[in-house]
Amino acid sequence: MLGYIDIHSHILPGIDDGSADEKQTRSMLKDAYAQGIRTICATPHFRPSMFRVSLSKRQSAFELTQSIAAEMFPDMKIFLGNELYYAEDGFDYIKDGVCKTMAETRYVLVEFGTSIDYTLLKKRINRFVMEGYIPIIAHIERYDNVRTDIERVEELIEAGAYIQVNAEGICESSFPVRKFVKKLLKYELVHFMASDSHNDTNRSYNFDKAFSYIIKKYGESYLDKLMYYNPDKMLNNEYI
Asked: Which residues in 199-237 are b (16+ Cβ under 10 Å) and which e?
């Protein structure tokens, strides 16, 4: 088994609505490691209207998480990014380095309002591309106006977006969400599967069921693509 890469995790202690403290971060790292994760891209929310965190505090939390991981699991790597909630001034924050791209690459993990108009969503994806970034749409299964028409996912990919689904979307969400995610997998419209972990309880590392489903349905090579090869290309700033 390859050392898998989780590209979406709120594992930094005391930064947003993710890990509350160092103890919880340790527990999350332990869970991640037990499920085969060897690299994590920490992606605290970037939404100034809701989460106001100084750059120094975020950097300290990142460095602390790196040191904890190195102590617990020497082969675990931690990178820094953000989960950007789209706003028109978001690009200024990215250019200024206040909002982090994924591990200093051109990739940006971005989320939108769940009821966003599809035409507007596509327009915003186009803007990311025009600005020179590679957008990864976080948890695509949450967007009402995309879930109703799988062809819209294809159009977003053609526009330059990459698609991330949460592991829980495969086996532990509502039936419409599970059906949609499984359809995306069937037609190979998913580039990344991630934990979107926030804690060690109700939003913990939850890959086991999803891993089992994908291996049984499509084989281990498909899982390797979602959890290692595609994320590795992202970390190396390469197109998928």
From this structure: bbeebbbbbeebbebbeeeeeeeebbbbbbebbeebbee
